[in-house]
Write a structure and sequence with these properties.
This protein is mainly α and about 70 residues long. The chain contains one helix and no strands.
Length: about 70
């Protein structure tokens, strides 16, 4: 049986679609500003966390101040 013999389902009527929610320009500006501020806060939080990594009582990171041991 070919597909040409099968009836096609009717196309949906565009008038029956639900209305798309719209945002006011004021809401869009608030959304954009909120996204930008949130991104800046995340960047500063990441920088703060990374700056605290590896800080110990001696202030050395990865043992850079220790003498190297050679096995000769």
């Amino acid at each position: 049986m070919s597909t040409a013999d099968e009836p096609r389902p009717p196309r949906p009527d565009p008038a029956d679609r639900p209305a798309r929610p719209t945002r006011s320009p004021k809401q869009m500006r608030a959304l954009i500003v909120g996204t930008i501020v949130g991104g800046i806060v995340l960047v500063f939080a990441f920088m703060l966390i990374v700056s605290q990594c590896g800080t110990g009582a001696d202030g050395e990171i990865y043992g850079a101040g220790q003498a190297a041991v050679s096995a000769v």
